[in-house]
Amino acid sequence: MNQSTHSTNATYPAPSAIFEVLHPITWFPPMWAFSCGVVSSGQPILAQWLIVIAGIILAGPLMCATSQVVNDWYDRHVDAINEPHRPIPSGRIPGHWGLYLSLIWTTVSLLLAYLLGTWVFGAALIGMVIAWIYSAPPLRLKGNGWWGNLAAGISYEGLAWFTGATIMIGGAMPDWPILALALLYSLGAHGIMTLNDFKAIEGDIQMNVRSLPVQLGVDNAARLACLVMGLPQAVVIALLYSWDRPYHASAVGVVLLVQIGLMIRFLGSPREQATWFSGLGVSVYVTGMMISAFAVRDLTITI
């Protein structure tokens, strides 16, 4: 089944189709991570509320949305088989408009990032490179679960957190505890991304997508996902204790224990429970992110 089979003979995409291809439901993780960066900076938020709003728009409706439309454009042939109702294969976004939208959103994102400062622009530039090589050939990182999940975790969590912090401190480099938290939660997000691969194992095998469940098998991939989610949080707890933040460390410890309880159920039946664990476990995971962000608000450590 090809794209023309579903063509609506439209010349321009309808606004509703554009909104759909930008996948607003995916904007929450980077917007939340950006907010964690804002909080972790320790700067007064209300005094810079316009910059905060601009940064949230950059993280979600621009940067994340760009990655989504780029992904849909380069997946259009696969989607024509598996999900022909999507905007691009159905023809509701006709011709090369998927590519045009990708380029427009990329340009607007980088322009706003440039206005927000040098470090923000640098982070946005890295994020855009990742967004394109994640989906586009020849690299197409999403074709391998090790690299694709790492790229997504860094983009959705680490770069967004870094951007939130650097915007609030006037475009300077954040202190290393902020960078450490951003990196650790990015690594943990690698496991979260693996959870999304359990629902498409058969399709991934047919399309030669080497997700971790395909490469390692269901049970091994499930155990790895839990380990990769849990270990960085354990390091966060240890760091918070070393930074004399025992209450925050204990709170993140409780968050991790809740996840471990959820992991036990998930590991009993990974394919059936992956969506459940992703929905509930990720909500708990991001709670720990915000607790950690509050922990370093007034932290000053030199190395």
Write the layout of secondary structure elements.
Layout (H helix, E strand, L loop, with lengths): L14 H7 L6 H13 L8 H26 L1 H7 L14 H19 L2 H18 L9 H24 L7 H20 L5 H6 L5 H5 L1 H25 L3 H23 L1 H26 L8
Could you please describe the fold and organization of this structure?
- The protein is mostly helical and about 300 residues long.
- The protein folds into two domains: about 170 residues, Tetracycline Repressor, domain 2, CATH 1.10.357; about 120 residues, Four Helix Bundle (Hemerythrin (Met), subunit A).
- Helices cover about 70% and strands about 0% of the residues.
- The chain has 13 helices and no strands.
- The longest helix has 26 residues.
- It starts with 14 loop residues before the first helix and ends in an 8-residue tail after the last helix.
- The N terminus is likely disordered.
